[in-house]
Design goal:
Chain B: Residues 283-438 form the NADH-quinone oxidoreductase subunit D domain. The complex is a heterodimer of chains A (318) and B (522). Helices cover 68% and strands 0% of the residues of chain A. Chain A has helices spanning 5-36, 46-55, 67-71, 74-86, 102-122, 126-155, 162-171, 179-195, 214-217, 223-248, 261-284, 294-316. The chains are: A mainly alpha (318), B alpha+beta (522). The A-B interface holds A 33, 36-39, 126-127, 129-130, 199-200, 203, 205-211, 284-293 and B 170-174, 178-180, 194, 281, 283-288, 291-292, 295, 350, 352-353, 355-356, 502-507.
């Protein structure tokens, strides 16, 4: 695929959109929860205010931590930005489209998680190790499910390139309506919740150290480092929700057209906001699962993804 | 539900023929250290429980007082309170340990050792309890000659936690500073994977020397301290203190005042139980129910403010009397009761919430009895102890019911609270009938005591049975006040219930016990 100006502008727009919009998505979800629970809420902009506050603080590095701890927050943020540049968020004509491979994207996501898990171990505290152990358990079940469920969608296209999958769906929208998509969508939705640390797998709002998964791992971070970690996790949430949206409802995603780009950006923002709102509203009525029930839930979603793959082979000939 | 007692339903309406319900049978005996274990064993075997043990410094001796209490069983078997006084040589204060007879006795002895330097002989676990490692050795703060607190050092080194060894066992130290707005306590988990093998709780980080603050004050000046023993148990501790002082002075307050006090006590139980129901839902991540319980709690706090002028009920119980600005409206309370019942049903109807509660950290009845647990923790494990029935200061029959559950898990502790809310509202509705608001007090007494006096107050606070014992000098100043919050009895039950639970369930289980740090650490 040739590099076009529109594609490059589109990719840049995607990065800016995800980078700037991710904290707003988190703010929106908190606001939805607050309103549904009868609270006033802090406003959609609060995560940005928190990030600004954290950026002004002094970073504190615990005694005995090494370079892993200091470098780790950069990795999830950097990988999230790379994913934002390559995957079809607003345009399928990103100049880096070749990297928008299913396996590459999943590996990038895992790289960020592994970096934070290593940093958690590097602190040498009980919480860091505990959080890392729990996060790795969840990740080990989540990553294969993401791979397999997207793979189910790639069978009919004959490519694991996410741009190709989205383009194909854009051209033949009727193909979305199939048992394969349904199974894959459910599987992806469950793992998105798990990967982003939402209820019922993890509770991002808790102050109880002993129940934390993701938060326990990053407990030792402070100041700008913590801001980076928080920003990265917000971006990952935005990316995963956007991926779910565009794999099953890609309308609005543009090709190499400059004129359509603002519309595509707006469509993406709207889709992610709706999905985020639905997720937050669903969380209000959910409770957190017992830790040992989480693998059952994730194994279930993996089975759904596997069924989706199997079904895609059966249904491809008809 | 257990029936409160054996009162026939067709109680005659005329003047009561029963002996007054609030006249316990009292015995106080001076015993020698050699016969103490036998006397204690006989009392414990006779169905008494050790409610309190406290050391005192007399001019010529150290004196230890054991208070044994036995529940009232109907009109022929009144409540019994037996005190054993043991005098010790201040130069060599050695006491035969009762730890093998009663688990709580062992803990009281360790407390006396740390605060007074009294040595329990042959104690199976003679480790420090109250004293932290920065207290100097040989400094006993409750003794008269203790003086100002010395500089903190590190004479002991860290606490000798028992290390669990084996493949894959690791330790998680938590606290004493926690992420949430809770009191300080250090928890040391020995864990394999996520399963808790052993938990050791180290408390007494908020030891303030509260009992020493009472010394030398007049009861009126000490009442504000009693109200602040534990912030959520204002009425419970204030009332136990007032009852103890009135008991010491032989001051009898009118039945109407006692009923006002009983209303305040139930109001305190209501708002705290509602808070706990919400917090339990919040700890499993179901925050909307917490928000709803928070709404009900706010209504109850406003009711408290109407009743006493203070949202946490301060100033409601006074020496020799009570202040009730407005009688709580039974209709409003019944509306709240329906609201609470609906919310509790919503919580338990939610499969994930029910799954998190059911079977989590069960405390067996045997363990609950052996450890001497009190309050809803004991009742959730099937032990129907309730000082409102067993040690009544006013007759709450027939409205009072004492619910118990059998399973002793988090679910049982949730359900017991929900049922106690209904029982409390029934009691308040009954008491409020025909009551008029006002301030009544029989304080100060007409004659101050001419010789040293002592008294005991027993109250079923919302957490469980609170016992205060005061000693007054001639003239009426306090020479010694011993406070026993039910948390002192219930804390050891938490690690027992948690053995075999998983680490992420700890906050939930801890909340289901909801023990006071301030009331325990004093």
């Amino acid at each position: 695929m040739s590099v076009t100006v529109a594609g490059s502008v589109g990719a840049a727009a995607q990065v800016v959109l995800v980078g700037a919009g991710a904290p707003l998505l988190v703010g929106l979800m908190r606001q939805v929860r607050a309103r549904l629970e009868g609270r006033a809420g802090a406003g959609v902009l609060q995560p940005w205010r928190d990030l600004r506050k954290l950026m002004r603080k002094q970073p504190i590095t615990p005694d005995g931590t090494g370079p892993v701890f200091r470098v780790a927050p950069l990795l999830p943020a950097a990988t999230a930005l790379v994913i934002a540049a390559v995957i079809p968020i607003a345009t399928t004509a990103s100049p880096l489209d070749g990297a928008a491979d299913l396996f590459a994207v999943t590996a990038l996501l895992a790289l960020g998680t592994v970096a934070l898990a290593l940093a958690g171990l590097d602190t040498g505290t009980a919480f860091g190790g505990m959080g890392a152990s729990r996060e790795t358990t969840v990740m080990a079940l989540v990553e294969p499910t993401i791979l397999v469920s997207v793979f189910a969608l790639s069978v009919r296209v004959g490519s694991t390139n996410l741009g190709a999958i989205v383009t194909s769906t854009l051209h033949e929208p009727q193909r979305v309506i199939s048992p394969v998509s349904l199974l894959a969508a459910i599987a992806l939705a469950v793992v998105t919740i798990a990967e982003t640390g939402r209820i019922p797998v993890d509770n991002p709002a808790t102050h109880l150290e002993l129940t934390m998964v993701h938060e326990a791992m990053v407990l030792e971070y402070s100041g700008p480092d913590l801001a980076l970690v928080e920003w990265a996790s917000a971006m990952r949430l935005t990316l995963l929700l956007g991926l779910v949206a565009n794999l099953f409802a890609p309308w609005g995603v543009t090709g190499a057209s400059m004129a359509m780009l603002p519309l595509a950006v707006a469509a993406y923002a709207a889709k992610v906001a709706v999905l985020g709102g639905v997720l937050a509203a669903g969380e209000v009525f959910m409770a957190k699962l017992r830790m040992f029930r989480v693998p059952e839930l994730l194994a279930g979603s993996f089975v759904l993804a596997l069924l989706a793959v199997a079904a895609s082979f059966f249904l491809v000939g008809t | 539900m257990n029936s409160p007692d054996d009162t026939p339903p067709d109680r005659p309406a005329g003047p009561p023929v029963d002996p007054p319900i609030d006249r316990p049978e009292r015995v106080a005996a001076e015993v020698d250290t050699r016969v103490l274990p036998d006397r204690a064993a006989a009392l414990l075997g006779d169905g008494f429980r050790l409610a309190l043990a406290a050391a005192h410094q007399d001019p010529d001796a150290l004196r230890v007082v054991y208070l044994f209490t036995k529940a009232r069983h109907g009109r022929d078997d009144p409540e019994r309170r037996t005190e054993l006084h043991v005098r010790l040589d201040p130069a060599d204060p050695v006491l035969p340990s009762l730890a093998r007879l009663s688990f709580p006795a062992g803990r009281f002895e360790r407390e006396m050792h740390d605060l007074y330097g009294i040595v329990p002989q042959d104690h199976p676990l003679p480790r420090r309890l109250v004293r932290h490692h920065h207290w100097p050795r040989g400094w006993y703060p409750m003794r008269d000659d203790a003086g100002a607190p010395p500089r903190f050092g590190d004479p002991e080194g860290p606490y000798p936690f028992v290390q669990v060894e084996g493949p894959g066992v690791y330790e998680i130290p938590v606290g004493p500073v926690h992420a949430g707005m809770i009191e300080p306590g250090h928890f040391r988990f020995s864990v394999v994977g996520e399963t808790i093998l052993k938990l050791k709780a180290r408390l007494w980080y908020v030891h303030k020397g509260l009992e020493k603050l009472f010394q030398g004050r007049s009861p009126a000046a000490a009442l504000p301290i009693a109200e602040r023993v534990s912030g959520d148990t204002t009425v419970g501790h204030a009332l136990a203190f007032c009852l103890a002082v009135e008991d010491a002075l032989g001051l009898r307050v009118s039945p109407g005042v006692q009923r006002m006090r009983a209303i305040l006590l139930e109001l305190e139980r209501l708002y705290n139980h509602v808070t706990d129901l919400g917090a339990l839902c919040n700890d499993v991540g179901h925050s909307i129910l917490n928000a709803q319980f928070g709404r009900v709690r706010e209504q109850l706090l406003r009711l408290n403010a109407q009743a006493t002028g203070h949202r946490l009920l301060r100033g409601g119980v006074v020496l020799g009397g009570a202040v009730l600005r407005a009688v709580p409206d039974p209709d409003a309370l019944r509306a709240l009761e329906a609201d609470i019942a609906e919310l509790a049903d919503l919580a338990l109807g939610h499969t994930v919430v029910a799954d998190r509660f059911t079977g989590t950290a069960p405390l067996t009845a045997q363990a609950a009895r052996d450890l001497g647990t009190l309050g809803y923790v004991a009742r959730a494990s099937g032990i129907g102890a309730d000082a409102r029935r067993d040690h009544p200061f006013t007759d709450l029959r027939p409205a009072l019911t004492v619910p118990t559950a059998a399973t002793g898990d988090v679910l049982a502790r949730f359900q017991i609270r929900a049922r106690e809310i209904a029982a409390s509202i029934a009691v308040v509705s009954d008491l409020a009938f025909g009551m008029s608001p006002g301030a009544t007090s029989y304080w100060p007494p007409l004659t101050p005591p001419a010789e040293p006096a002592s008294g005991v107050g027993i109250v079923e606070g919302w957490r469980g049975t609170i016992v205060h014992r005061v000693e007054l000098a001639p003239g009426g100043t306090l020479t010694r006040t011993k406070i026993v919050d039910p948390s002192f009895f219930n804390w050891p039950a938490l690690p027992v219930a948690l053995a075999g639970a998983i680490v992420p369930d700890f906050p939930l289980v801890n909340k289901s016990f909801n023990l006071s740090y301030a009331g325990n650490d004093l």
